[in-house]
């Protein structure tokens, strides 16, 4: 009987300690899972905000380029002779700077290369329109430049939505 009491007396605290250890481990695991979920949600919100700011910046850039009073000049790119670089006056400079900051923010926060590549492609198309505006009036810019820009716009939206785990609203644009 003394052996049984001794065994029961030893097993009970051991089982209690194992229960405490298991409970602590489960709590820690659950807290870690909650932290990861919250962290992912915060980054998703940051990315959504960054992508929204980028879309706003590029559209403001285009709006300025199409303004009849815009003063834009264009020069050949120093390293790519087949490409022309647009330059804005003091009024347009904030639009260029905002677009440059927005594309850099995308490079900073994006998890997928596809998103940064499609954003860069969209910026290249927007710059082509601005460079064309240096030699054409706002009404005479070749329409194929706009068609290419809208395709690049859709590709960026598809890539951004994919990164944000949203549904694909233009499946053909990602091709």
Describe the protein in words.
This protein has one domain. 70% of the residues lie in helices and 6% in strands. It has a two-stranded antiparallel sheet with strand order 1-2. With 175 residues, the protein is mainly alpha-helical. The mean pLDDT is 87. A hairpin with a 7-residue loop joins strand 1 and strand 2. Helix 1 packs antiparallel against helix 2, helix 1 runs parallel beside helix 3 and helix 2 runs antiparallel to helix 3. It has four helices and two strands; from the N terminus they run αββααα. It is rod-shaped, with a radius of gyration of 28 Å.
Task: Return residue spans where pLDDT drops below 50 for at least 5 consecutive residues.
Answer: none
List how many beta strands DSSP finds.
2
Mean pLDDT: 87
Rg is 28 Å
List the helices and strands and how they pair.
Blueprint: H1 2-65, E1 72-76, E2 84-88, H2 93-109, H3 113-133, H4 143-163
Antiparallel strand pairs: 1-2
Helix pairs in contact: 1-2, 1-3, 2-3, 3-4
What characteristics describe this protein?
mainly alpha; 70% helix; two-stranded antiparallel ribbon; 4 helices; rod-shaped; 175 residues
Provide a brief overview of the structure.
The chain is mainly alpha-helical. The protein has helices at residues 2-65, 93-109, 113-133, 143-163, and strands spanning 72-76, 84-88.
């Amino acid at each position: 009987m003394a052996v049984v009491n001794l065994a029961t007396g030893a097993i009970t605290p051991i089982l209690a300690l194992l229960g405490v250890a298991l409970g602590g481990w489960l709590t820690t695991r659950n807290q870690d899972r909650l932290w990861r979920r919250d962290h992912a949600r915060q980054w998703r919100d940051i990315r959504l905000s960054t992508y929204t700011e980028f879309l706003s910046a590029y559209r403001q850039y285009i709006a300025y380029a199409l303004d009849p009073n815009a003063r834009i000049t264009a020069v050949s790119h120093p390293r790519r002779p087949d490409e022309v670089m647009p330059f804005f006056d003091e009024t347009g400079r904030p639009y260029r700077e905002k677009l440059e900051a927005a594309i850099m923010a995308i490079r900073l926060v994006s998890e997928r290369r596809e998103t940064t590549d499609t954003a860069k492609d969209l910026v290249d198309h927007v710059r082509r329109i601005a460079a064309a505006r240096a030699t054409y009036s706002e009404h005479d810019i070749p329409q194929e430049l706009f068609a290419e820009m809208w395709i690049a716009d859709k590709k960026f939206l598809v890539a951004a939505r994919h990164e944000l785990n949203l549904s694909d609203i233009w499946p053909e644009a990602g091709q």
